[in-house]
Amino acid sequence: MKATFLILTYNQEDYIEEALNAAFKQTYRPLEILICDDASTDGTASLIEHILRYAPDDIAVKFVAHKKNLGFVGNLNQSILLASGEVIVFAPGDDVSYPERTTRIVEKFKETNALLVHSHAKCKDLAGNDIERLYSKTIFTRKNNIYLVSKSRSLYLGASGAWHRDLFEKYGLITAQGFIPEDLVFGYRAYLEDRIGFIDEELLDYRVGSGITTRKFIMPKTVMDLQEIADKMGEVKPVLTQRLIDINRYDGDEGFKKSVKRFLNRRIDKVNKKQAFLTKGFLRHSSNTGSTWPPLKRPYMH
Hints:
By secondary structure, the chain is α/β, with parallel strands linked by helices. The chain has 9 helices and 8 strands. Strand 1, helix 1 and strand 2 form a beta-alpha-beta unit. Helix 7 packs parallel to helix 8. The C terminus is likely disordered.
């Protein structure tokens, strides 16, 4: 079973050398390392070219430096088309995979019928210090159901994930427009198929705060905060839209399928109304962009 070790980068010159050296130390064979840089504006691409001179001879290496920024989803979709492995091990350009990571993941795929495999990780801050597992309350780590999963924006630690090619043969690439973290799509698809594998080991150092898909939660204090929350509400809709596309491709029980479609359509409608309320309601009632609002309930963000 051939594996592709996929590294996506964008402006990560401070971390890419460590990430690539970790890729070179992977013990699994046959292995392909595929690096796709999304038109970085710093020195990431040139640094990658330099480091690749020291790649092991028994690993096939492909490096694609896009001239135009495709956005995260565009870069991801292109990389999936370019990958030749039956298994794709995702490795963000700021994280450090342990040498046995690919080996353990492939073993799990062989032992099960999983379409997605994920694991624990050791969380690090930007200075390299150990911190608590911030992903410990993701939906896959606790009791769940299809409705909780369908609305969740935290399924599993995406940086720990690996995907079987069959996942894309059935569901295709990500086609909804907008910012969409890959774990919220691929995790949902694998959940629909009931084909998720978990490795109860730390297989990588996960750097918190420097990733391409990192987003912070903002509790509103000013009108400008409310505008930013409204913008983030616009990030929720693409995820729900892609899940609606994917449930239409699901070929299981029709009653289940119809129920989930109704649920997703209601969630999308709810998001549209909340976004409109935030952008038109609150902002219309204030002429001072720095005015402070009374405490609000936590907005719809998971």
